[in-house]
Amino acid sequence: MHSRRQASLEVTALFALCLLSVFYFARWKSSQARYPFPPGPKKLPIVENLFDIPSKGQIWLDYSEMSRRYGSDIIHLSALGNSIVVLNTAKAVSDLLEKRSLIYSSRPYSTMIGELMGWKNTLFFLPYGEAWKSQRKIFHQAIPPGDMARFHSKLLKGTRNLLRVIARTDDVLNDFQSWVSVFILDVVYGIQEEDAGDFLLLGSEAIESLGVAGTPGAFYVEQIPLLKYVPDWFPGADFKRKANKWNDIRERITEGTFQATKEQELATATPSIVSVALQQIDASDDVLQREGDIKSASMAAYAGASDTTVVALANLIAALLLDPDVQAIAHRELDKVLGLGKLPDFSDEPSLPYITAIIMESFRHQPLAPLAFPHLVTQDDVYEGYHIPKGSYIIGNTWSIFHNEDEFPDPRRFNPSRFIDRFGKIDPNIRDPTFVFGFGRRICPGKHLALASLFIATASILACYKIEPELDEHGELAEPKVQRDPAPSLINKPLPFKCRFVPRSKEIDAFL
């Protein structure tokens, strides 16, 4: 019985796949009449590029290689009804995702994440339209780019806590995760560490589920949406059972955090994205709709910031561990501006350009998202004489952009000084790598908050500590080792690594 049910599921999936393939092959043939697709691997009948689409770790390197192999800024692949266009230069990204953002700002629909796991109404996954604009407005009102001061005290408090923790444990990535989760709960919901309780665990599980479900090729239901109708009890439908569990986690943290903030709002709310948004509801609003938008926007903020900020800081610390000379330059700048034993605050940022350059170079050297989350083009387009069909996934390859030797000589080298001009300031003529936060209208609305948190964390850690390798069995400095996570993912993160945070002076003890 089990084998018959499994076979039935496989036959259903195969039949659906064949129908989709025939339909899209016919559409592909008709689209060739006027303009060709951009260069890319040769398309085979029916399956097209099914076996050419990268599926193993660090797939951005594969797309970069395709760009070189076919001598083109843009690459096209298609399979299983999906048309994929990869943009490998800053010019192509600017021309399409920014200058033509009106038709390049939507999102592909995700059956697993959006529908089965329930994330479809959150800002990150919403198609471009009024619902998306409404949620984005919530962010701009709560955290306007030019007015981050209301959150500075939260970031300073969280960073001081981090400084005390990292000197006493060797689980760096876990320490960063705890730090980020606590201060993001505070910034987004106004929930303090002592009240975080189950929210931290639920949040971690929700973010982890997104990472699993978002991995290319993880679930066949993304390529064959008809599989969503398979009952969750059916053999082979493990994806449905996982989706149900993950949807329950998302619902619990979304509702729980919002209700906690709303109750706090009635008493003495601390400033947060949710509290600010609740205060701006007026009598003319549809309150239920408005609260629904706030829930979705705030959950997107929490999930997005928690994982990406951890990875960004981990990448930065890993680079500093491997390059003590960069640390030495940063220490000299900090000592000159602050004096030994003093902690920085946000007013010091203009006087610490090398710290800013370290953050910029970290984004360039190991981009947080080397392949930006796909945009969706909403109508047929022509670019550089090539046909870009409606419904194509448009992916910016930031790895290719920031490892372009013509623009960034010796790109594999971690060199923050490339962003410093002859006057010792940030060079405005060097491309700003912080557009790893997205392109055009889909740029992350929490970008400035993330940059502020990374600045104060980086400056504070380097003011207090030297980042050194672990000691070997003889008490000598071991060779530092940092390896990249080989698992398929859109996030570029290091594997867990060991290091020590060694206090630079006795005065530091006063802060720890």
Describe this structure in words.
With 512 residues, this protein is an alpha+beta fold. It has helices at residues 2-30, 59-70, 90-98, 111-116, 130-142, 152-166, 172-189, 193-196, 198-213, 238-266, 273-279, 287-322, 324-338, 353-365, 398-402, 447-464; strands at residues 74-79, 82-87, 375-376, 381-383, 386-388, 393-396, 465-468, 500-503. The strands form 3 sheets. The chain has a 4-stranded mixed beta sheet. Helix 6 (152-166) runs antiparallel to helix 7 and helix 7 packs across helix 9. The protein starts with a helix and ends in a 9-residue tail after the last strand. InterPro entries: Cyt_P450 (IPR001128), Cyt_P450_CS (IPR017972), Cyt_P450_E_grp-I (IPR002401), Cyt_P450_sf (IPR036396), Cytochrome_P450_fung (IPR050364).
Q: What's the overall average pLDDT, rounded?
A: 87
Order of helices and strands: HHEEHHHHHHHHHHHHEEEEHHEE
Helix-strand makeup class: alpha+beta
End-to-end Cα distance, whole Å, is: 63 Å
Question: TL;DR of this structure?
Answer:
The chain is built from 16 helices and 8 strands. It has helices at residues 2-30, 59-70, 90-98, 111-116, 130-142, 152-166, 172-189, 193-196, 198-213, 238-266, 273-279, 287-322, 324-338, 353-365, 398-402, 447-464, and strands at residues 74-79, 82-87, 375-376, 381-383, 386-388, 393-396, 465-468, 500-503.
